[in-house]
Amino acid sequence: MAINEAKNYYKNRLAFLAEQKSSGINPYPHEFPAGRISILEFKDRYDKELNHDDRLDVEVSLAGRIMTKRTISSKLIFYDLHDVGGETQIMANASISNLEETEFMNFHQSVKRGDIAGVTGFPGKSKKGLMCIIPTRFVVLSPCLHVFPLAKKMESWAPGKPRHPDQYTLNDQETRYGKRFLDMIVNVDVRKIFEIRARVISFIKRFLDKKGFLEVETPVMNANHSIGAARPFVVTNNNLKTLFMRISLELHLKQLLVRGYERVFEIGKQFRCENIDMTHHLKFTTCEFYMSYADYNTLITMNDDMLSECLDKDKKPMKIDFTPPFRVMKKVIACCRAFLWDGCAASSGSLAWDFKG
Questions:
Q1: Of the candidates 133, 109, 113, 114, which has an alpha carbon nearest to the alpha carbon of residue 123?
Q2: Which of 74, 170, 227, 295 is the most buried (most CB within 10 A)?
Q3: Is the pLDDT of residue 222 over 80?
Q4: Which SUPFAM superfamilies match (predicted)?
């Protein structure tokens, strides 16, 4: 859509909201019925009880974002409603709605893609056998003021499957990274990755907690440059005192070991004033843990156990066996094998180099 058309759309939506307010209608209701259930729970609870073109006389409430709208006639409109756990159809039928026919037509003409809506009605199935809710009450909770991308139907992604960013609804990389909120709304794969990241971080915390580690928070800004060769960000406070953003978690965690804590860890942000590319960012998150009375052999065992337990092997078979212990190799030998250097051979702990060509 052209820029001028997008601007006109935005102005028209603002004018519509102003008209609602002048009529005494609040376009942003403060709440929706407390009995609302998730779409995932809605499907689990009623899907098996329904046949094609059928409905139950049970009233339920759902809420989420409208991703698509299909107008069959002035009296029958289908919507795709998404929440954080799933999606379902809304089959808005004038004969079942609590609105008069003219009110029904006017109201649904004002409902747009991207609006957050709440519906109360009956569980049902369409003639094609698709699960849906047939609403008696339909409320727009938060109107979308901008043109909302028309979401594409894609195969559901799961860890281990290849991703296809070029097929995303929003596939311009600059727009995706600049507007992550929009990226996560229309590209479901991206939202799943964020959720997996959160679960991995929660697992690491639980794992270290069971091992007796204490989670701490160390200063992000320091008066002195922390250890390391990376270039720090320099900031100035109101008293014109120079401070440095940390480039590592290491220093303060080691000071806690000196203080007497035997096992500490932190998952936190680091900041480095350096170049940016696809694998380097000005700020990033790391996990560092330190423990007394242990060496690298102890850490090898801990990492094996952490990775093995983190993978949910019970749900789907894994192509790679992650049962510990993993094979331990010297770094140079591993590099030789990875780059297929034919002349590199190892024997009895020593490395012999005989490059050909």
A1: 133
A2: 170
A3: yes
A4: Class II aaRS and biotin synthetases, Nucleic acid-binding proteins
